Amino acid sequence: MSRSRELLKRFSMIDEAISCRTSSRYETRRDKDANLFVTFDDGEEVKLPYIPFRPYQIELQVKLYIEKVLRHLLERPRRSGKEVESWNLLIEGSIESPGLYMMVYPTNVRAKAVLWDGAILMPNGASVKFLEMIPKRLIQSINNQEMKIKLVNGSVIWVVGSDIDPDKLRGTNPRGIVYSEFAFQDPRVFYVMLPALRQNGGWLIGQSTFDGMNHFYQLIEHNKNDPLWYCRADSIVTLLDENGNRYITDEMIEEDRRAGMPEYLIQQEYYGVVQINQETKYFAHAMKVILECGRLVPNLVIPNANVYSAFDIGVNDCTAITLFQVRRIDNYLKPSVIGYFENNNRDLAFYVMEIRRFCNRYNLTFKDHFVPHDGQKRDFNTGKNTIDFLRDMGESGFVVPRPTSKENAIESMRRMLYLCDFNKENTQRLIDCLANYSKEFDDKMGTYKNRPLHNWASHGVDSFQTMTLALDGDMISDRPFDVVYYA
């Protein structure tokens, strides 16, 4: 009996494979607007995108699939249809060119809620799920647990959150990636995947509203004149139909105002205004000054000046280190941040060696390590506290004072940022952390709490806090001493 069931199962699998092979026989073509037509052997034809694109969406489709521009950064206002736009472009790519395609969200929870389980409302009142926008004949299987879709041509579409360890994505070989709400993501996922896309000729789309002058804004500003990139920053005023009419009207925005939406958020979400409002981002204004006043300095190091390290010691998470030098100007010390790195699951000796390698590369002298107030209790699984272990390695280490409160520490860091210069090449990750350091949102009250959100940006900011406490605590002595020789 079991033998018969096994044979029936095998015949069923063979029949399914034959059916898939038959249904996967199709040809593709594109029209002048880059719309994709899929024609099957039996004569059935399917047109993509599932929902007809608006003029500005057609422009992106032509740039990607006809002009073959591979790098796209799009600041789109709320209600502009950016989710439908990027999802359908991803589907088109997976049908036309077999490979791995990724739809990346800020979190896995958001990925599931917005796209995997999500739907949009059509003008006729019908609801259409995002997964239904893929032609059924082209779907081989759907894995709900991993949020993966396998097509009959071998393509895999993976919907994923960037809150997973970015290093877990290393080794994947995607042909196309969409970063949805890119301004709210950890940019490390972008930097990890970019080399793979360059190597295999893959493409990427980063779409979002602005969220201050963080990595998304900086990337658009840096690449907007590069012919290899297509960058577009829009507002409700620039997104028009064929007759010059706006898709998002003043009446729609007034509806949000009446519902209590703050004006700064309306300006950000609808008009593409880059906010410097510190209601959400602690260092928004300070980062604006740094970016606009040329305080990101290429190849910044101070010859013959000592180097200091400032730690944030992670417990079961990331350890971050800020490397800095100081110059005395009149009666105060001006810091120059020349390096930054972070890692996890490494012992203290690893970080000390990384600091030494950095200093050797620039022929600089290292002087002192500074660790947080609780650093003396952290042992990196060595059985010794951090300060004792540093001294055993011949290093000089000190514990900075405990801040009187987190609010006071943040205010001290804000003041310090106005004094700092940053090495442009070596501190981009730290700049991303500082620019993205946010207040925690209270879902029940609908307001921001007076405390920081603990996420990927926290580690870099906490190491900068250690540096600030060391400087404010007058723990750094750079005064030259006269040498007196006795006979």
What attributes does this structure have?
Nucleotidyltransferase, domain 5, disordered C terminus, Rossmann fold, 2 domains, 487 residues, 14 helices, 8-stranded mixed beta sheet, 7-stranded mixed beta sheet, alpha/beta
What is the total number of structural domains? 2
The number of strands is 22
Alpha plus pi helix count: 14
- The best one-word shape is globular
Mean pLDDT: 87
Would you tell me the structural class of the helices and strands?
alpha/beta
Distance between the termini: 106 Å
Computed Rg: 27 Å
Task: Name the beta content range.
Answer: 15-25%
Tell me which CATH architecture of the largest domain applies here. 3-Layer(aba) Sandwich
Unreliable stretches: 14-23, 480-485
Helix content: 25-40%
Strand order in space, largest sheet: 8-9-10-5-11-12-4-13
By CATH's scheme, which homologous superfamily of the largest domain applies? Answer: P-loop containing nucleotide triphosphate hydrolases
Q: Kindly report the CATH topology of the largest domain.
A: Rossmann fold
Major sheet attributes: 8 strands, mixed
CATH class of the largest domain: Alpha Beta
Describe the overall structure.
With 487 residues, the chain is α/β, with parallel strands linked by helices. It folds into two domains: 27-236, Rossmann fold (3-Layer(aba) Sandwich), CATH 3.40.50.300; 289-472, Nucleotidyltransferase, domain 5 (2-Layer Sandwich). It is built from 14 helices and 22 strands. The protein has helices at residues 2-23, 55-65, 82-96, 108-116, 188-200, 215-223, 250-258, 263-271, 284-292, 348-361, 386-392, 406-417, 428-436, 457-472, and strands spanning 26-30, 36-40, 45-48, 71-75, 100-105, 119-121, 127-129, 139-143, 148-151, 156-161, 174-180, 203-208, 229-233, 296-297, 307-312, 319-329, 332-343, 366-371, 396-399, 421-423, 439-442, 447-452. The strands form five sheets. Strands 8-9-10-5-11-12-4-13 form an eight-stranded mixed β-sheet, with helices on both faces. It has a seven-stranded mixed β-sheet with strand order 14-20-17-16-15-18-19. The protein has a three-stranded antiparallel β-sheet with strand order 1-2-3, covered by helices on one side.
